[in-house]
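Ticket #4471: structure export looks truncated?
Reporter: QA, pipeline team
Priority: medium

Steps to reproduce: submit the single chain below to the structure queue and open the exported record.
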Amino acid sequence: MGSCYSVDARSDDGESSRRQWSDRGPPVGGRKNRHVLESMARVGSRVFKPESMTSTPDSNTNTTLKEHKASTYNHVHQLVNDGISSCHNGPSKSLSGKVGLMNLGNTCFMNTSLQCLSNTEPLTDYFLGYDYRGEINQSNILGTKGALVRSYAELTKHLWLGDSNTYRPEEFKKKIGRFAPQFEGYDQQDAQELLAYLLDGIHEDLNRVISKPYIEEKDCDGSNDEGDAITAWSNYLARNKSIIVDLFQGQLRNTMTCRNNNKNGSRGCGHKNVKFDPFMYLSLPVSDRCNSLDDCLSLFCEEEILEGDNQWYCSNCKSHVDATKKIDLWMLPPILIIHLKRFKFSVNGHRSKIDREIRYPLNDWNLSKRKKSNGGVFPLYDCYAISQHHGNVNGGHYTANAKNRFDGEWYNFNDSVCRKINQNQEKLGFGSSAYCLFYNRVERQHDEKTTIIRRQSVSRPELWPHLQRDNIKCWTSTRAA
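Actual output as written to the record:
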C-alpha cells in the first residue's frame, strides 16, 4: 500500500506516547496498572420472562419469572445503553465512541477498521455487556484461545468507557499480528484485509462449536432452492456459531450451468449445479460504467461466461466445458459490509487504484429486489460507518466516518483526531474515497426502529433468517409514517 501520512505527532523520546498510557485503569493484581479499565456488569444468554400460573380455575392468576434461552441480544443492548449513561467512573456520553486511535506507524489502515467496527452497535454491545469470556473456545486450533478477543474487548472499553479522548492500540496490534503475521510490522496494509482477518479471528475465538462434524457437500440442481438453502445454512451452523455469524453472515446462491461447447467438440448437457455459500462481506467490482453502489452490485451479480482456460468441469459430461456462472444474493445479514474493489493489478503485476466516484445511499437502501429468497426480514439498510482511502497506492491514508449511537451525529476519525462533521458539507454518500461501507438492517419493533440480532443455532431453526417470513407479503418501509 505504500507509505502512510499520519496526523499523530510524537516526540523523539516518546514522552507523549507514555503519557497517553500512564493515566488509565484500576489496580490489577495488587499493583496499579493504568492500562486496564473495569468492565460494566455483564449478562449471559439466559433471560427471565414472566409466566402466568393459575392454581385453580377460580383463583387469581399469579405471575412468576422463568429462565429462558435468549433468542436475541436485545437485553444486552439495553444494559449497555443504561450502563454507559450511568457510568460513574468513566466519561459522560459526550465522549463515548468519540475517542481517537494513535497511529503506531503506518497503522491508519488498522485504525479505520477498528473505528467502523466500534460503531457497529451490536458488536460493541456484545463486548461491553455480554459474558463473552464464557464463549471463548479454548480448544480451537484456528483461534488464539481468546487472546485476540480479550485485547479487542479491552480496546472497545477504552473507546466507550474510558476517560481520555485518545487511545494507543498497541496491545491489540500485537495480538492481531500474532494471529495474522502480515500485520506484525509497520508497513502500510489494506484496511479490508485487516477487517477480514479480524472478524475471522474473533469468530474462531468465540465459535460455540467445540467439535466440528464432517458434513459432505451436497450438489443441488436448482429445483428446490428454498429447501436447499435452509439445509446449507443448517450444515454451516453445525460447524460455525458465534456473534460474528449472528451479525455478519449472509448467504449467496452460486449457479453453474453447462453450455453447448466443450473441448472435444460434443454438445453440452445444460446440467446445472447450485451451491449456497456463506459470506461475511460483499466485495463489489468497480468499473468505468459504475456510477452508484447499485451499479457495482449489478456488476457483481452479472452472469459470467467461463471458457478457454476457465472452463468448468461438468460432472454430468465428465469433462471440462464452457459454462455460465451466476451469483445472486440469497439471504442478507443484519450487518452488511460492502467492500469496493478499488485496487487492481494489471497483467504485468502493476497495482493501481480506481478513483471512480461512487454514489452510495446513507438511508433506506432497499435490497428487496436484489434478494432472491422468498424468506427473510425486509432488507432495508442504513449506513452507519465508512472506511475511506485517500491518495494512491504509493502514498495513501485511511480515515473513517461514523454515526454516533447516542447523538446521531457523524464524526470523522483521522487517527488520534476525532471531530464532528456535517454530512452535507462533507458530501457523505458520494465520492472516490469510500472503500468499505457498513450498513445495519432496520426493523420495526414496538413502534421503534432497531436492528434485531437473532442468535443462530442448529437447535433453534425458528430464528434462522430463512424462516422470518410472518409478514413476507406485507413488507413495508420502516420509514413510513
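Status: closed, not a bug. The export was complete when the record was re-opened. Leaving a note from the reviewer for reference: The two ends are 47 Å apart (CA to CA).
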